[in-house]
Input
Amino acid sequence: MAKVKTDRRDFVKYSTLGIFAAVLGGGIALSPYPLRAETRLRPPGAVDEKEFLGLCIKCGQCLQVCPYHSIELADFATGHGIGTPYIDATVRGCYACTAVPCVLACPSGALDHACEKPEDIHMGIAVLEFPDTCIAMSNTPVPKGYNDRMYAFTGAQRNVTELETQLLDKMEGYEGKQCTLCADVCPIPNPLSAIAMVPDANGGNRPEIYDGCIGCGACEEVCPTSIPSIVVKPRVSYEEQYENRV
Ligand code: SF4
Ligand code: SF4
Ligand code: SF4
Output
């Protein structure tokens, strides 16, 4: 059942749309968040950030074909590159569609057509950024209402797709159980190449990331902690993040 969006992030986003329009009307092109583009998660196939900003014609074709409503266009509140597509994985990650339709729809080369399948996607890398809050590590059961936010997001769409309904169904039934949400949602064909729950030294379990991770952000979306314990670092490779660990 559809629920009303009440998330503060949504309030900030929608309340700033009016400001965005006013600023554009006044011909002001500067953003107060010039550095945030460096850390934004781009859709699959996005070329190097500088090249991407030059190539993207802000047509919105990629977001129109996305069956999960994963892609948003940057507004004044979300950094420079206004009108360029990005993914806020705290709201909705990418679900690595088989034929990567967002890339196919891109007419400008900003999303590289060499990205033809989930394994070709390299958006970033997942990291258990806040292990202290991961409820699997403390053997804390998945709380009631853990998936309310997903229902709210889907319910707010005008054209809910079958794939979104299937995703909601898949995320049912975890309440009161040991949390394995991030590992179970991983959408790539061989999720065990990207993430697995492993025993932790303190008697709980924790998600471990492997080099198959494509940085889609699905795990970040479904993590039930108030600030996701697992996050995606955009444009960071497995090697950069993990290879030189001590
Ligand atoms: S791969 Fe699919 S879910 Fe991911 S951004 Fe592209 S169209 Fe959306
Ligand atoms: S581990 Fe997370 S970011 Fe990596 S592929 Fe799986 S769901 Fe996507
Ligand atoms: S979704 Fe993953 S990272 Fe988040 S609490 Fe559950 S096991 Fe921990």
